[in-house]
Amino acid sequence: NQSKLDFFCKLGYSKQDTCKVLENLGQEALEDDVLKELIRMGSRPQALENQTQPSPPKLVARGSCSSTPRLKWLGEDESDSSSSLRPIVIDGSNVAMSHGNKEVFSCWGIQLAVDWFRERGHTYIKVFVPLWRKEPPRQDSPITDQHILEELEKQSILVYTPSRKVKGKRVVCYDDRYIVKVAYEKDGVIVSNDHYRDLQNENPEWKWFIEQRLLMYSFVSNRFMPPDDPLGRHGPTLNNFLSKSPVLLEKKWQTCPYGKKCTYGNKCKFYHPERLHQAQLSVADELRAKIKVPLITGKEEERCNCSP
């Protein structure tokens, strides 16, 4: 089936691996099953480059790092490799339904999320939406601003996950698996309010990734708003969360969770507003200072009383 072959080649899988899986499972196999088999085989997305002529080996100076080019995905430009910001993978259905108050599939919500990350300077943004959302809206599944999907697809931002009809019944591939897999392979961030619990149980590596790289959000008066602390009160800031190389100095300006009960003294890496005008003494020095002060003052009083 040429359409299936083209779809998996678009995702970056080699034609040879895809053909092999289709031969094993049959041409009528569902895309979801084909993807599962490709993952099981250990097949990874590869660069779609002409590799007929092997490139000559490069001489690398002693002590320098290896210059092996990393695998590139289709549609990824050179600027993404040098960007300091993480790739963004958006759960289109989750974002659209959230903006539509869980009643309407609002494509404008997807546009608001994409624009927010664009303004921050992210060069790699992908949105996944099921293919059947291209169909005319029905009463049981209303959709608004459907033209936005077409515009985002032209910009190579939106990707449709496959679906088809068998004997009048719609067969939909599991788009969540595409979202998590692409974000994991790209070492990026998943934008969704879904926790993907079934996928966490399926793969321990995905479990860690979803826990650490899931960015939740809210819509406030048509404004896309992710939290300033995506991993909780004592986790990284939003800027650090979305950066490949987080700024560690920001940790010093986070308030210490222990407050005045902190026993780390001047070795504490967090910010203590109560110590702003105090000398930074170690815990031992602080204790010594507290014990010695009343003893010294007491002795001085005795000397004063004894002296004529």
From TrEMBL:
Residues 45-65 are annotated as: Disordered. Its cofactor is Mg(2+). Residues 244-275 form the C3H1-type domain. Coiled coil: none annotated. A zinc finger (C3H1-type) spans 244-275. It comes from the Eukaryota. It holds the Pfam family RNase_Zc3h12a. GO terms for cellular component: cytoplasmic ribonucleoprotein granule; nucleus. GO terms for molecular function: hydrolase activity; mRNA binding; RNA endonuclease activity; zinc ion binding. Keywords: Endonuclease, Hydrolase, Magnesium, Metal-binding, Nuclease, Zinc, Zinc-finger. Belongs to the ZC3H12 family. PANTHER family: N4BP1-RELATED, RIBONUCLEASE ZC3H12D-RELATED. This is ZC12D ribonuclease. It comes from Sapayoa aenigma (broad-billed sapayoa). The lineage of its organism: Eukaryota, Metazoa, Chordata, Craniata, Vertebrata. The gene is Zc3h12d.
